[in-house]
Write a structure and sequence with these properties.
220 residues; alpha+beta; eleven-stranded mixed sheet; 13 strands; 18% helix; globular
Length: 220
């Protein structure tokens, strides 16, 4: 357990260094799905086609602008419902539908810029945005590496912790699925809970206790 936490702490130091690198826009990123992303092939095969069709992607911008509009301190979240398991190398999960949640603290110009930023970060997943909502977006990183809390008002929430040795079930665990956003430096984490309570996708959900999250940083 101590070893896994030490590795997570080292990776978080690297991610913090990445944020300070020269970039037009940079910040933190959290992703969660309804299937394990850190798992063994046997577990992944049992979930393919059945789970992994839902995802939430959250960006909190530390510094930077998008096409001349300052977005420092603001957040945006995309809630995805795909037609198949996201990341399945054998079956296409697209098209997907998405609900976009932009920060309620943003001005009208900043909300438009947040949408453009999210669409650029995940262009294929956000081709079909069916609804845009506003909510105050919070992303809090605790001192314990891997422990993050994300909320978008009453619409969506994520809570994670670091992966531990007790999360190893079959002993063949690896990063089976990679983050859905390529311009991201991220490590897998354990999802304590994640939920979507909004409208637009024809369903809401709540999931607990899965190895289904990524936590990291982005520069673009």
């Amino acid at each position: 357990m101590k070893k896994s936490r030490a590795i997570a702490a080292a990776l978080f130091l690297l991610m913090g260094t990445a944020i300070t690198a020269s970039a037009a826009i940079a910040g933190r990123y959290v992703e969660v799905r309804d299937a394990d992303v850190y798992t063994g092939p046997c577990f992944a095969n049992s979930q393919m086609g059945l789970r992994g069709k839902q995802a939430m992607l959250a960006w909190k911008i530390s510094q930077g602008s998008w096409h001349g509009t300052d977005l420092s301190g603001l957040g945006v979240m995309a809630v995805i419902r795909a037609s198949n398991t996201l990341g399945d190398p054998y079956f296409n999960a697209l098209p997907a539908e998405a609900v976009l949640i932009v920060d309620a603290h943003a001005s009208a110009a900043q909300r438009q810029a947040l949408r453009g930023f999210a669409e650029a970060m995940a262009p294929k997943l956000l081709q079909h945005i069916v609804r845009v909502d506003t909510a105050p977006i919070s992303m809090t990183f605790d001192a314990e590496p891997g422990t993050v809390q994300v909320s978008a008002g009453k619409l969506a929430e994520i809570q994670t912790r670091a992966l531990m040795s007790c999360d190893m079930i079959c002993g063949n665990e690896e990063v089976y699925y990679h983050p859905l956003v390529p311009d991201t430096t991220a490590i897998p984490a354990f999802t304590l809970s994640e939920a979507f309570h909004g409208q637009g996708l024809g369903e809401v959900w709540t999931h607990h206790d899965q190895r289904s999250a990524f936590i990291g940083s982005f520069t673009y």
